[in-house]
Design a protein that fits this description.
The structure holds two protein chains of two kinds.
Chain A: H1 6-14, H2 20-38, E1 41-44, H3 46-62, E2 72-76, H4 103-110, E3 114-119, H5 153-160, E4 166-171, H6 177-183, E5 186-189, E6 209-214, H7 217-227, E7 257-261, H8 271-286, E8 290-294, H9 302-317, H10 336-347, H11 350-362, H12 369-389, E9 395-399, H13 415-419, H14 426-431, E10 435-443, E11 446-454, H15 459-472
Helix pairs in contact in A: 2-3, 5-6, 7-15, 9-11, 9-12
Chain B: E1 3-14, H1 53-65, E2 73-74, E3 77-80, E4 90-93, E5 103-108, E6 114-126, E7 130-132, E8 143-145, E9 152-158, H2 165-181, E10 194-204, E11 214-219, H3 222-241, E12 249-254, E13 259-265, E14 275-276, E15 283-284, H4 287-296, H5 301-312, H6 316-323, H7 326-339, H8 342-359, H9 371-382, H10 388-399, H11 405-412, H12 420-433, H13 435-443, H14 446-463, H15 470-484
Helix pairs in contact in B: 1-4, 2-3, 5-6, 7-8, 7-9, 9-10, 12-14, 12-15, 14-15
The chains are: A alpha/beta, B alpha+beta.
C-alpha cells in the first residue's frame, strides 16, 4: 500500500479496497520499523491517527467524503497542532504544546485526512541540510551518508522512504523545492498568500509559504486543493478563488513558452545536474513546448538580499522566545537579563543564533539603509526581472539546486557554501512567485530536480506541466534502493 | 538671566474599542490578570495580527478633529526591545508613515488669550502589558499581566510649542476634551486611558536654539504633570546656573512621593531597529471613508463653545468651562432647555452639581440628580417659586433621591410666599414686635439705615420660615419704613 500515490489511495479508500484504519496502521508500522534509519519524524501520533482513521472510515461509508478523507499524511513540525508538541526543530520549543491548530492543519482535519505525526526539520526552518535540527539530522533515503536537504528534509525523506504518501512543508528560500529535489520527490511552493500562515511558526514572514510534498505532481495538486484557502486570520492571505488544481492536469504542453534563464546554468552547477535538466527540457520541447532563452539579470543578487531580509525578519520573529511565557527557560536565572541571555543561548542552536545576530546587525541604527534598505531595493529589481520575463514566457525552468545531495558535514564549516544551495530557489521567494521541483534524473546515484517557476497564482499551470512531464518520464517513480 | 521654558508632549490615548488592535480579546479595564489575553496577545508561536478597523477609524476621527492630513497609506512597523510585558519582543507601531499627519490644536489661557499648538503627527500602536514586582508573589519573582497588551493607542506627538506648565496643562486638557467629545477615548485618567510624556528644556530668553531636553514619562494626571514640569524646569535652571549641563535623559516623576529621578541616559537608550511589519499590509484609507467619518464626527469643543455663547448667551468663561467637557455639555443642554434660563442652568451645573459630583468622585453620567430634575428645580427658581437659598435644600434632597423639585418643595413646604397681602402682614407683625429697632432705624443717619435693613430682613425671613420672597419683602419693608419717616 505504501507504494500507492495519493490519487491511488483515494480510489482505494472510496472503492472500499482497504479502510483508512488499515492504511493508517500500515504506515504507522512502517514508521516504527524505519524511522530510526532516517530520523524523518520527530513525533508520531499513533493513537490520534487511528482515532482519526476510524472517524474517516465512518465518513467514507456514508459516501460523498472529501478527497483527502482517510488519507494519512505528515505535517512539518513548524505547523501548530492542537494538543501535539510542536517543536519547530528546536530545543526552545521541545516542551511546547499549542492549544490551537494551524489553518493548514485545520484544513486537512476538516477534510478527514489522518495526521501520522510531525516531521523533522532544520531548527526554525533555518538550514538547507536538516543538520541544524535539535532532534538530529534527517538521513537521505537515497544515501544515508548524505543530507536530505532542508529545511523540510523530514517531510521529503519520509515521502521518499514511503513512510507517508504526502506531507506538508514550508519554503522560505527553497525549503520545499530543494529537499524535494534531493530526495527525488515532487514539492510545490505556492504563490505568497495562497496558503494561510496562521499557526505556522514564522521564520521570515514576508517569504514564508506553506506547500505540499508528494511523489507526483498530481498528488501535490490534490494536497494543494485542501491546503489553499483565504484566511481572515492571516492579513497577508489573498482572497482569491481556489481552483481545482487537478482539473487542468491533462492539458497539453503544446505551444507552451518555457523561459530558460541563462543565469541558472552558470558556474557552480554540477555538470550531471545540468545534463539531467537539459534532457528534461528537451523532453518537454519534444511534446511541443517552446524553449526560450531569457535573462534574469539580478539573479546573483538574490542570495545576498535574502540573507539580509530573512534574518532581519527572523531576528524580530524569534524575539518572542524569551523564556517568559512558554518554551525553554534556563535553570535558576539570577536576574531578568540572565534569564533572557541564557534561555536564548541555551535554547537556540548555532545557525539560529547566527541569523538572529545577522538580522539584528542589519537593522541597527546606521546600518539599516546600507543593508535592509538596499536589500529591499534589490528585492524590487528581482521582482521586476520576473515580471519582465513573464511578458514573453509562460513558465520559467531550470535546476532546483546546483548539485545532488551532499554528504553530512560537507558544508558544515562554511555557512556561505550552505547558503548557495538555495541560489536557484531564493529569487522566487523574494518575488513571491510559485515554484515547484520535480525529479528529472539520477546523478551519482542520487536524484536531481527540475524547477518550474510560474507567474503569480499560476499553480495550476505549473502542476499541469509537471504532471505532463511525469506522464512521459519515470523519474518520479524511482525508489531508493534501501526502500524497494 | 531670565529663562524660557520649551515643552513638547507625547500623549498616549487608549482608544475606546471593544476589542484589541490586533486580536478579538476584550479591552475592558480591571479584569482578573491575564483573563483578557488570547493566543495573539500572548504572542504564541504562529499567531498573526489582524488590524481592528474601528481603531483605524478612531485614529482618522482624531486627525479630522485637529484638522490634520490623513495618511491614506500608513504603515505599521516593529519596534524591537525585550521586556516581559512586551510578549512579542517588539511593539507594533508606526514610524515613517503615521496615520495622522500635521495638525493643530487651539488652547485657551487664563488671561483669555488663545494659542495654537502644533501636532507633529499621531500614530496607531499597541499598548504593552503590565509588570508587577509587589504583591502576593514568590520571592524574587515578578508578575506579568497581559490584559492591557494589545489595547489600541494613538500616540499624539506635539511640536515643542508650549512655553509654560500652564500651556502644557491647557493643551493636555484640550486633547482630553477633544478625544472624549468625539468618543474615541473614555478619558479615564486614573485607569491610564491618557498618559503623558513631557519633553522639557530651557534656554535663555530670546534664544532661538533649543536647549537639551529631558523626557519625563508616563504622567497620568494633570496635577502630576504640572508638578513634574515645574520641578524639572527649576532643576534645569538651577543646574545651568550652577555651571552644569543638562543631560539628555528619560526621567520618572512619582506624584505620590513628589520625587523625580533619572531612568536612563541617552547612552543607555535602546536601538529599536524599526522595520515595516511583514505580517500587516499597509493601511489603505479611501477618500470615501474619510468623508464618511468627517460627516459623522461629533461636535468639537471649540464649536460647542461658540454655540453656547450664541445659543444660550453664556459668557466666554462659562462656555469654555462647560464646552470642554462633553458630558457636562450634554447635561447642561438638557437643564438649559428644560428650565428656560440658561445662565442659571450653567451656574448650577458648574457650581453646586460639579462640586457635589467631585466630592462624591462621580462623573456627570453617574450623577444622582438627573438633568431633567435639575431643570425642574431651575425652573422653580426662575418663576420665583423658590429662592436660591431654598434651592440648595431642594438640591440636597434631590441628591438624596427624595424626588423631583416639585415633589420636594411640596413635601417640605418650601414654596416661596410671594403673595403681597401675606407678606405685608408678616412685615407689619415683625415691625410691631420690634419697635425699638424701628425707633433706632428712624433716628439713624440716612447713610447707616441701609445697613440696618438687614436686621429686619433676617427677622422677617425667620418669621416666614425662609419662604418669603426676599425681593418682595425688601420692597414692602422699605415702603413701610419710609411711611414712618
Amino acid at each position: 500500500m505504501h507504494n500507492y500515490t495519493i490519487a491511488e489511495l483515494i480510489k482505494g479508500l472510496q472503492n472500499n479496497e482497504f479502510s483508512s484504519v488499515e492504511l493508517t496502521q500500515h504506515f504507522l508500522d512502517r514508521i516504527s520499523q524505519l524511522n530510526d534509519d532516517y530520523n524523518a519524524i520527530i513525533t508520531v501520533t499513533g493513537e490520534q491517527a487511528l482515532n482519526a482513521a476510524t472517524l474517516a472510515d465512518q465518513r467514507l461509508s456514508l459516501g460523498d467524503a472529501p478527497a483527502m478523507c482517510g488519507v494519512p499524511i505528515l505535517h512539518k513540525d513548524i505547523f501548530c497542532t492542537d494538543g501535539v508538541r510542536t517543536s519547530c526543530g528546536s530545543k526552545m520549543l521541545d516542551n511546547f504544546i499549542p492549544p490551537y491548530n494551524a489553518t493548514v492543519v485545520e484544513n486537512f482535519a476538516r477534510d478527514g485526512a489522518v495526521m501520522l505525526g510531525k516531521t523533522n526539520m532544520d531548527e526554525f526552518a533555518m538550514g538547507s541540510s536538516n543538520e541544524t535540527s535539535f532532534y538530529g539530522p534527517v538521513k537521505n533515503p537515497w544515501a544515508t551518508d548524505s543530507v536530505p536537504g532542508g529545511s523540510s528534509g523530514g517531510s521529503a525523506a519520509a515521502i521518499a522512504a514511503r513512510l507517508a504518501p504526502g506531507a506538508t512543508a514550508t519554503d522560505t528560500g527553497g525549503s520545499i523545492r530543494q529537499p524535494a529535489a534531493l530526495c527525488g520527490i515532487s514539492g510545490l511552493k505556492p504563490t505568497y498568500g495562497r496558503v494561510s500562515r496562521w499557526g505556522m511558526i514564522a521564520f521570515a514572514s514576508s517569504l514564508d509559504q506553506a506547500g505540499p510534498m508528494a511523489r507526483t505532481a498530481e498528488d501535490c495538486a490534490i494536497l494543494l486543493n485542501c491546503m489553499a484557502s483565504f484566511d481572515e486570520k492571516d492579513s497577508t492571505s489573498v482572497d482569491k478563488n481556489v481552483p481545482d488544481y487537478t482539473a487542468s492536469l491533462g492539458n497539453s504542453v503544446k505551444g507552451l513558452k518555457i523561459g530558460i534563464p541563462k543565469e541558472y546554468f552558470s558556474e557552480g552547477l554540477h555538470p550531471g545536474t545540468e545534463v539531467a535538466v537539459r534532457k528534461a527540457l528537451a523532453d518537454l520541447e519534444a511534446q511541443g513546448a517552446e524553449l526560450v532563452e531569457i535573462s534574469l539579470p539580478n539573479s546573483e543578487l538574490s542570495v545576498p538580499a535574502y540573507y539580509v531580509i530573512a534574518p532581519a525578519e527572523a531576528s524580530a520573529n524569534l524575539s518572542r522566545f524569551d523564556g517568559v511565557k512558554y518554551g525553554y527557560r534556563c535553570e535558576n536565572p539570577k536576574d531578568l537579563q540572565d534569564m533572557y541571555c541564557r534561555s536564548r543561548t541555551e535554547g537556540f542552536g548555532e545557525e539560529v543564533q547566527r541569523r538572529i545576530l545577522i538580522g539584528t546587525y542589519c537593522l541597527s541604527a546606521g546600518y539599516y539603509d546600507a543593508y535592509y534598505g538596499k536589500a529591499q531595493q534589490v528585492r524590487q529589481l528581482i521582482q521586476q526581472d520576473f515580471s519582465d520575463a513573464f511578458k514573453s514566457v509562460d513558465l520559467i525552468m531550470g535546476p532546483t539546486c546546483p548539485s545532488p545531495a551532499f554528504k553530512f558535514g560537507a558544508k558544515g564549516d562554511d555557512p556561505v557554501a550552505m547558503y548557495l544551495e538555495d541560489i536557484y530557489t531564493i529569487a522566487t521567494n523574494l518575488a513571491g512567485l510559485p515554484g515547484m521541483s520535480v525529479p528529472c534524473g539520477i546523478v551519482e546515484d542520487k536524484p536531481v530536480g527540475l524547477q518550474i517557476i510560474g507567474n503569480y497564482f499560476d499553480e495550476a499551470r505549473i502542476l499541469n506541466v509537471a504532471h505532463q512531464f511525469q506522464q512521459i518520464t519515470n523519474w518520479h517513480q524511482q525508489t531508493p534502493e534501501a526502500i524497494s | 538671566m531670565s529663562w524660557e521654558t520649551v515643552i513638547g508632549l507625547e500623549v498616549h490615548v487608549q482608544l475606546a474599542t471593544k476589542t484589541k488592535i490586533f486580536s478579538a480579546a476584550s479591552t475592558a479595564f480591571g479584569a482578573t490578570p491575564n483573563s483578557q489575553a488570547c493566543a495573539i496577545d500572548l504572542a504564541m508561536p504562529g499567531t498573526l495580527p489582524v488590524l481592528n478597523k474601528q481603531a483605524v477609524n478612531y485614529a482618522i476621527m482624531f486627525g479630522l478633529a485637529i484638522d490634520a492630513d490623513i495618511c491614506q497609506e500608513s504603515v505599521f512597523e516593529r519596534k524591537n526591545y525585550f521586556y516581559p510585558d512586551l510578549p512579542k519582543g517588539y511593539q507594533t507601531t508606526q514610524l515613517e508613515k503615521p496615520i495622522v499627519g500635521r495638525g493643530s490644536v487651539t488652547i485657551q489661557l487664563a488671561d483669555g488669550s488663545e494659542k495654537a499648538i502644533g501636532i507633529h503627527h499621531a500614530h496607531l500602536e499597541e499598548d504593552a502589558g503590565k509588570s508587577t514586582h509587589e504583591g502576593n508573589l514568590p520571592h524574587g519573582m515578578s508578575g506579568v499581566d497581559l490584559n492591557r497588551a494589545g489595547t489600541p493607542l494613538i500616540e499624539i506627538v506635539s511640536e515643542p510649542d508650549m512655553r509654560s506648565a500652564e500651556e502644557a496643562i491647557a493643551f493636555a486638557k484640550k486633547l482630553h476634551s477633544i478625544v472624549t467629545s468625539i468618543n474615541i477615548c473614555d478619558g479615564e485618567m486614573s485607569q491610564g486611558s491618557m498618559r503623558f510624556d513631557v519633553n522639557v528644556s530651557v534656554r535663555p530668553t530670546g534664544s532661538s536654539v533649543l536647549g537639551t531636553r529631558t523626557e519625563t514619562k508616563n504622567l497620568n494626571s494633570f496635577k502630576f504633570m504640572e508638578e513634574a514640569i515645574e520641578r524639572e524646569v527649576e532643576r534645569q535652571i538651577d543646574l545651568i546656573e550652577d555651571g552644569g549641563i543638562v543631560a539628555q535623559e528619560t526621567r520618572l516623576y512619582n506624584g505620590d512621593t513628589k520625587v523625580a529621578k533619572s531612568m536612563r541616559s541617552k547612552e543607555e537608550a535602546n536601538d529599536y531597529r524599526y522595520f515595516p511589519c511583514p505580517d500587516l499590509l499597509p493601511v489603505l484609507i479611501s477618500d470615501a471613508t474619510i468623508e464618511e467619518l468627517r460627516q459623522a464626527l461629533p461636535e468639537l469643543p471649540d464649536a460647542r463653545q461658540k454655540r453656547f455663547v450664541s445659543q444660550y448667551g453664556l459668557s466666554n468663561y462659562d462656555s469654555n468651562h462647560i464646552a470642554s467637557d462633553s458630558n457636562m455639555s450634554a447635561f447642561f443642554e438638557v437643564v438649559a432647555k428644560g428650565s428656560s434660563n440658561a445662565k442659571l442652568a450653567a451656574n448650577w451645573v458648574m457650581g453646586e452639581l460639579s462640586g457635589a459630583l467631585n466630592n462624591a468622585d462621580l462623573n456627570f453620567s453617574g450623577s444622582p440628580v438627573s438633568p431633567q430634575q435639575l431643570a425642574g428645580m431651575v425652573a422653580r427658581i426662575e418663576d420665583n417659586s423658590i429662592s436660591g437659598k431654598m434651592a440648595k435644600l431642594v438640591f440636597e434632597a434631590m441628591w438624596k433621591g427624595e424626588g423631583t423639585a416639585d415633589e420636594i418643595i411640596q413635601a417640605k413646604g418650601l414654596k416661596q410666599v410671594s403673595d403681597s397681602g401675606a407678606l405685608e402682614k408678616i412685615v407689619a407683625e415683625v415691625l410691631d414686635a420690634n419697635l425699638a429697632m424701628v425707633e433706632d432705624f428712624i433716628n439713624s443717619d440716612e447713610s447707616k439705615r441701609k445697613k440696618k435693613l438687614g436686621g429686619f430682613m433676617g427677622q422677617i425671613m425667620k418669621a416666614s420660615k425662609g419662604q418669603a420672597n426676599p425681593q418682595q419683602v425688601n420692597q414692602i419693608l422699605l415702603q413701610k419704613l419710609n411711611e414712618l419717616l
